[in-house]
Every structure is written in C-alpha cells, then in structure tokens.
Amino acid sequence: MVDVSDMVAPDAAGVVDPRRALLFRGVFAHEVTRRLKVPAKEQRAYADRLQTALSEELLGNLSGEFVVLTDRNVNVQALFVYFRAAPSDTWQMIGASPVATGQPGEYDHFITPLGVFEHTPANMDFRSEGTMNENRIRGYGKRDMRIFDLGWAQGERGWGKGGMSQMRFQMHATDPDRLEPLLGIRHSKGCVRIPASLNVFLDHYGILDAEYMALVASGKSLWVLKSDRQMTPWAGRYIVVVDSGRRSRPAWAPAPGTQARAKVPAGADTAD
Fold first, then answer.
1. Which residues in 90-105 are b (16+ Cβ under 10 Å) and which e?
2. Which positions ≥6 away from 121 have C-beta within 8 Å?
C-alpha cells in the first residue's frame, strides 16, 4: 500500500488542506488494478448526476468527504469515486472501475436500487470467509474482503410480475477467478460487485468510514476495521446509485470479452 502519511499530515496550524484529497487520484491509479479511463467531459457529466442525486436528498451542500457513485445502466456498469473540498467547488473524479449490478430474469434477482445510501454501523459490515458455494464460486470474493452493508432497501424484483420488495443491499468483491473478469455487465442478484483491489482501497483508507470512525472516536472497538489501516481525514459515508439512461455502450466502459464469459460455470448467477 502507498504510505499516505505525508499526504494527510496537518500543517503548522494543525489544519489539513482538503484539496490534498485530490492526491488520492495517484493512490487509486497505483493500487486499483481494474480502472476505467473516463474522458473529462464524461467526468463532468457524472459530477452533475451526483450533485443532482445529492440535492434531491437535501445533501446539495455536501463537501469535504469522498462519495462513491455507481451507474447501474446496462451499457455502463461503472463506479466512480468523487470529492470536492467546498460546496462551491465542482465534484472531481478520483478514479473509476467496472462493476456488476443486478441482472433481472431469475428468482430473487433484483434490479439494483437507485438513490443515496448511507454507509453506517447501524448495518455493520463484515468480512468474507472466502468459502465456495455448491458451484465453486466465492460469492463475496477471497477471504478477508470487506462487505459494505447498506441495510435493507426497496428493490425492483427482476422476476415474475416485478414490483417492489425489500432486498439486502451490499457492495462487495466477487469471485476473483470466475466472476471478477465479468465486471462491466449486469451479473449480480442486486448488490454492487466491485474489483478486489477497489475493495482494498476503500477499506484500507476508510473512504466510506466516516460513521465507523465516529464510533471509534467515542471509544468503541470495531473488529471489522483493520489495525493497519491508513485513515484519510476525508472519509465519507454515501454511496449513490444512478442510471444514466444510455442506449449504447461508451468506449471507455468496455464489456468483458467472450473468453471471460466462457469461463463462467453454470449457476454462477446465483452468487450475490
């Protein structure tokens, strides 16, 4: 992992310039192995989508913390990390990666819900045991991957007559050998599947751990937080899901190739 101690160190007045958070672009590029090269124009368009979604939830002045944005659109399937130092600033992209969201068509498969979701210890995270299911799939990824639990959410059923019902909404890694190569298309039961390296990045630097660290500051001990983590001063708490409505796939968000699809065993879609 990158040593970010200098990046987050306070100045002589004991203040950490929030604009230093943009230096995490370099950390993301160094540590996250599955990345998307999003053109500047597209970065601005997604910044606008993010701001609109936050404003609809009375969070239009949110700043000084990282936010994760996901486009669930069937032709995109991408996650973006954004930051801005002040409400008057525009959101700036830190990095982007391919993901997999809910694929309708089978029982218990939901379309990933839209909205702004708060990552809070009220729905405590946990870690993957790395065990395989009956189809030899590690649904939560290799051992020790963090499962970001967003609690119960209203999701659109992707089977039968559709309609809305509750689903457990999570963001997590997936089987590194058979399912991670499929990121970039809808393939989950409703959760957001992310690359393992992105999972480690979010976990190690506490990108979404503002509420968790508030508990730690109050004296609580949380086993899910690793002792060697390097907490950023700009920890956030929000995961935002949008649908860009695209009707064709942009070149910067390529779909997985036929070789990756061919390696997927029968029943793999039953993994979270």
1. ebbbbbbbbbbbbbee
2. 211, 212, 215, 222
pLDDT at position 69 is 98
The residues spanned by each domain of the chain are 28-264
Sheet holding 115-118, edge to edge: 92-98, 78-83, 67-71, 238-242, 115-118
Using CA of residue 39, residue 40, residue 45, residue 50, what is the dihedral sign? positive
Q: For the chain, what's the residue count?
A: 272
Looking only at the bridges linking them, the beta strands covering 126-127 and 192-193 are: unpaired
Reported as a single tens digit per residue, the pLDDT across 187-204 is 999 999 999 999 999 999
For residue 18, count CB atoms less than 10 angstroms from its CB and return exposed for 0-12, middle for 13-18, buried for 19 or more: middle
Full-model pTM:
0.95
The dotted CATH code for 28-264 is 2.40.440.10
- The answer to whether residues 70 and 240 touch, using CB atoms and an 8 Å cutoff, is yes
